[in-house]
Amino acid sequence: MNTTYDFCQWLFSGENNGATVICHNFKGYDSFPILQYLYQNGVLPKIVPSGAKNMSIEVPSCNIRMIDSLNFLPMALSKLPKMFGIKELQKGYFPHLYNRKENQTSVLNQLPDVKFYNPDAMKSEDRENFLEWYQTNVKVMFDFQKELLKYCRSDVDILRRCCLRFRELFMSMTKSATGDGGIDPFETCITIASACNLVFRTKFLRADTIGIIPAQGYRPEEKHSVKAIQWIKYISQTKGVDIQHARNGREKIIDQYRVDGFYENSEGEKIVLEYHGCFWHGCPTCYTQHTINTVNKLSMEDLYHQTMEKKTYIEKQEPRDAFAGGRTEAFNLYHESSFDESIKYYDVTSLYPYINKTGKAVIGHPKIVTENFDDLTMYEGLIKCKVYPPRGLHIPVLPAKINNKLMFSLCRTCTEIKQQTTCHHGNEERSLTGTWVTDELKMAVNKGYILSTIYEVWHFDEVEQYDPISKTGGIFTEYINTFLKMKQEASGWPSWCITKEHRQQYIQDYYEKEGILLDYNKIEKNPGLRALAKLMLNSFWGKFGQRTNLPQVDYVSDPSIYFDMLTSDQQEVTGVNFVTDEMVEMRWRNKADLLSHQEELTYLEQLGQRVLYADTDSIVFTVKEGEWEPSLGDYLGDLTDEVPENKITLFVTGGPKNYAYKLHKPDDRGNQTICKVRGITLNYKNALSINFETVREMVTNGSQGDKITVWDENKITRDKQNTRIITSKESKDYKIVFDKRVITEKFITKPYGY
C-alpha cells in the first residue's frame, strides 16, 4: 500500500479542480510527500519557499492550491477546539511509535505499552493528563487499523470545523457597514499577517499615507556609484574647488547630458568629471553586451553607449538597518532577594497593538538629505550617522549590529573583540555608525552621545500620531480600535462588574482610557472571536516588516541556464535539488549589495541598576518599600504583574531568553520554580535535566565549557534534497554563553566600553 500515491491520485483528480487544500503544518510536513509525488510524475508546481520549508504550493494544471493553517492559527491542533469554544471536539491520544510496518494489522486485547505514546516528550501537565487517561483505558481492545482511521478522522474533523469557524468569524468581522463583502482569509492569503494586511488595505487604509519604498531604493544607482561620489569629493577637497553634482542639488546638465561633476578652475576653464562605474555604464570587460541591467532593464551594450546620461549619488542609507529586533538583556545574572526586598516581573499588555496605535507614523515619501544638514531637532524620520558613545552609562540607548548580534554597547571595538577589561579606546575606535530613528538619536544625544558625522537623512514632512486627549489621529488607530473593541467585548465582563452600575462604569472608564465605546449588549464571553481578534491585533505588523528580497523557485532543464544561474552576477542560488535526471529545482534570490526601544528605555532608566533582566515586552527588577516602581493597569500598553499575589525570591539568567526563578509560594499550577530556555522544548524528559536548579548551578558555579545535552530519539526532520520526511535522533546542548555585556562582581553586568 502506497498511502502518498493513493492520496495524491485522489487529490489531483478532476473532482478537486479549483480547490484550496488546508493542512496543519503543511510547510514542515505534508508538503514534502506531496512534492515528491509531483516530481515523480513530472509535475512542476509553483512554490512559495521559506528556508527549507514550503509555505504554499500551487499546481496550475489541476487548479489546486495548498496552504498551511498553522500560518493562520499558530498553535497545536489539540489547542484549536478550546480556542473556538468547540467543547465536543477533543484530540485523542495515539501510539505513534507503534506505527511500524510489522504492526499494521495488529489487534491487541489492550492498549499498546505506554512507551509507544512517548509520554516523556509531553509537557509535564499534558503527561499527567495522558497517564490518567491511559490508566483508565488500558484494558480497552486496540485494533491498529481502526484506531488509526479513527484518529486521522478526528484530526481532520478538528481541522475542518476549526478552520470553518475561523473563516466564518473572519468574514463576519470584516464585513462592510452594510453587511456586505466579508474577506475570505484563505482565498488569496497564505499567512495571518498577509490576511491582516489585506483587511487594513481594504477597510482602513487612507489614500496617500504609507509610502512604499521601491525594491531597489529611491535612487538605485547609489549601490554602484559610491566610488564615483567619493572620487568627486576627494577632488573637491584636494583641489579646493566647489564641484557641482546631483547630490548637492546642483546637478549640471549640458545639452541632453547629465554629468557626474562640473566646476570651473581658476583660469575659467570648464571641467567635466565622469566616473564610469562598470554596472551602470555597461563595462564591456565585466559584462557581455546582451547582459540585462536588472534595475533599468537596459542591455549593457545600450548602457555603454549612453554613459553620459547617468546621475551619480552618495551611498544611500538602508531603512531596514533601523529596523532592529527587541531589546533582550541580562543586567544581573543572579539575584536573591533580601528580607526587605521583592523581585517583580512585569509584562506589557498588548505591546504590538499599543505601539501601532500610539506610536508615530510617517506619511508619504521622504526628502533625502545628504549635504547641508540642519540641526538634528529639525528632522523626523531616519538618519545614518556616526556617534561617539559616552562612558559610564549603565543602560546604553542606541542599538548596533555587531558580530551579527543586536548589541547595546558603548564601544564598537570592545564589543567586536569582546574585551572584558577597562576600555582605553579613543573616540573613533569607540564610535558607532548606523541608521537610527531620529527620536532615538535625539534621546541618545540627551544622554551624552556626541553626533560626529551625518551621512544621510530621510526626513518626512508629515508625521501622524494618536492624541489620547482628543482620541483622534494615527493611521493605524481605526484598525486597532476595531479589533480591540471586538476582543474586549468577547472577553466578557470583568469579575468586579456585578451590578448594572458597575458595568456602566466599566464602559465609561474604557472609553475615557482607549477612546473605544463598548456595546453593552455585545459584552459576553466568546473564546473564538476573542482569539481571532487577538490574532488580528498581534499579527498586523508582520507584513510591514517583511523582507522584500524573498527566495524564489525555478525549474531548469537546460544546462546553459543552470550554469548561468550558478555563475550569475545578478542571482544568488541558495539551494539546488535534482528533481529528476533532467530537471533541477533551483532556489534563489536577487543579490543584494517593538516594545519600542524608547518605551522600554523609559522604564530601564528610572529603575537603573535595580533592573535584573529586560525582554522585548517585559522587565524584571527589584524593589524595596518606598522605591519607585512602574504602575500597573489593564489597558493597552499598561504593565501587568506576571506573578500576581506572589513574589519572586530568586532570579537567575544565563542570557537572553534563558532564565529561571523561584517563587515565594507555588503558583496556581503548583509550580514553585519556573524555567524558560529558548530553542529547547522543556518537556517532561528535558525538564529533568534543564530546570531552575541546573540553570542556577551553571550560572553560579559552572565554567565556560560546561553543557547539558538533551536527546530527541524521534525527531521528525526534512530531507530537502529528496523531498522526504524522516525520523532521526537529534541532540541539543544547553550551555551558558553570555557575551552581550561584561560580567563584573556579584554577577552584575556592564556594557562593553563602560
Give an overview of the whole structure.
This protein has 754 residues and is of the alpha+beta class. Among the domains are: 1-71, no CATH class; 77-188, no CATH class; 221-309, no CATH class; 329-347 and 595-750, no CATH class. Helix content is 29%, strand content 22%. The strands form 12 sheets. It has a 5-stranded antiparallel sheet, covered by helices on one side. It has a 4-stranded mixed sheet with strand order 1-4-3-2. A hairpin with a 2-residue loop joins strand 2 (46-50) and strand 3 (53-59). The longest helix has 30 residues, at 144-173.
Descriptive tags:
about 750 residues; alpha+beta; 5-stranded antiparallel beta sheet; 4-stranded mixed beta sheet; 34 strands; globular
Q: Could you tell me the radius of gyration in angstroms? A: 30 Å
Number of strands: 34
What proportion of the residues is helical, as a percent range? 25-40%
Task: Give unreliable regions as ranges.
Answer: 308-316, 591-595
- Write down the overall mean pLDDT: 84
Oligomer type: single chain
Sum up the overall morphology in one term.
globular
Task: Give the class from helix and strand content and strand pairing.
Answer: alpha+beta
Largest sheet: 5 strands, antiparallel
Beta-strand percentage range: 15-25%
Terminal Cα span = 67 Å
Please work out how many helical segments DSSP would assign.
Answer: 21
The spatial strand order of the largest sheet comes to 11-25-26-13-27
